[in-house]
Write a structure and sequence with these properties.
26% of the residues lie in helices and 39% in strands. The protein is of the alpha+beta class. The protein folds into 2 domains: 72 residues, E set domains, domain 4 (Immunoglobulin-like, Sandwich), CATH 2.60.40.1380; 45 residues, no CATH class. It starts with a helix and ends in an 8-residue tail after the last helix.
Length: 155
């Protein structure tokens, strides 16, 4: 009888451990390319480390426990918050994905991204052909120059 009770306790402990394991797994924060997100840091954060700042970058706001994360390129990296002694307070996996885009046109190896609302206009997205991206960047620069007449347009 005692052995049966002990086995049930061990199995119950194992089941609890298995159910608790995903909760202890690393948190994931999804970002959209070229968009910013305000994030609260854990209390006591003194240092913030981003594994690959080419994928996501952080700007500290005046209020110490808040940052602005900006997605720079597709991919995954991590972010670790450390206290003054260098102890890890939290770690988050940052996953950068494509923003919802109206249309992607694939012509052989050449890709074009368009945003449609309601008309389709060229969008700039990593992975697009140089011709498409270059023309979209040129037009955006010309538009920006038109809106600010004292700033020279991109050539």
């Amino acid at each position: 009888m005692f052995l049966r009770f002990l086995i049930q306790r061990v199995l119950a402990g194992t089941c609890l451990a298995l159910l608790a394991w995903p909760a202890a797994a690393q948190d994931v924060l999804t970002l959209e390319i070229d968009r910013a997100k305000i994030v609260e840091l854990p209390a006591g954060t003194n240092t913030l480390v981003i594994g690959n700042p080419g994928i996501a970058d952080a700007t500290v706001l005046r209020r110490q426990n808040r940052i602005v994360l900006t997605a720079r390129a597709y991919g995954q990296t991590n972010m670790i918050a450390l206290d003054a002694r260098g102890t890890a307070l939290a770690e988050v996996m940052l996953v950068v994905k494509n923003a919802e885009v109206g249309l992607v046109v694939q012509r052989g190896l050449e890709r074009e991204t368009w945003t449609c609302s309601p008309r389709c206009e060229p969008a700039i997205s990593p992975g697009d052909s140089a011709r498409h991206s270059g023309e979209a960047i040129k037009q955006a620069g010309q538009h920006g120059g038109f809106a600010r007449p004292n700033v020279p347009a991109a050539k």
